[in-house]
Amino acid sequence: MIEDLKDFNREISPYEYKEPLLEYAEEVANHFWGDYDSARYKLEDGTEIEGQLLPSIVPHDFACRWLDGKIDRRKEGAYIESKEVQETIKAFGLDSAKFWYLCLMVKDYVDSRINDAIKLNPTHREELVRLIEELDKLHPKFENHTINYDGTGVLSVKIGTEKKFTIKDGVTLSLINAALSFLLCHSNNYTNLLNSSSINFNERERLPRVYQIYLFNHYLSWFLKPKIAIRSIHASKDKSLLISRMTYILGITFDNRFYDEYSETGERNNFLKRYLSKYKNIDIKTISNIYLV
Question: For a designed S-S bond to 17, which of 60, 146, 200, 275 qualifies (C-beta 3.0 to 4.6 A apart)?
């Protein structure tokens, strides 16, 4: 049996929460979902600093969910009994319990970003760039305090119940183009704002299973990449196969080809790699409906 997470005082700050069994989970969470404090502080020597990185609170929230019985633990037996998985974990010098909790946390996060996930709108920068690209189709030319352009265009704006406001004049459209372009080129003070998105928490989305497998592989691959196997231990040292087997053990997929190292013909499967290779440029525009990142 794997040791349970210890209960803790939930009145303490999530940033102060520490659990040795979540060491690997904290490593991944701090890299991908670290928090940020944007406040301005003055140091004792009078120096002012603006903003600082904070630890991720995802491990804290995951621990709360685990202690509240919201994390499915039924696959623990299959994990412990998988000789192949346990041997590979040992070959990389990893702690089996810590790796288990890492996989549980990543799966819980991925589930909440795929099923009933909060839809992420384009960033403000992306929307402005798209508008500029449309206005560029007029091919404006600024020469001798005049503006020449090709073709015609219409820009319409409607706020609330007010009457739609329409601009058809090519010169005005070209000036709007120039103003927006200038903003994006000289927006150092608004970088964070431009790179952020407006979120409607009522807009939800359910994505195909391949996205779930893709994300699980993405986070686990980052964690395993720097790990070096112990040569003297005889076991599979295929990191991709370890991740692939965990997707099967955790029920992310029910296709046993994700678990098997060799096909029926005796060839190496590399099934996870081949499966994901069919899907290029995956771009997931959602955030977790639980962890809100």
Answer: 60
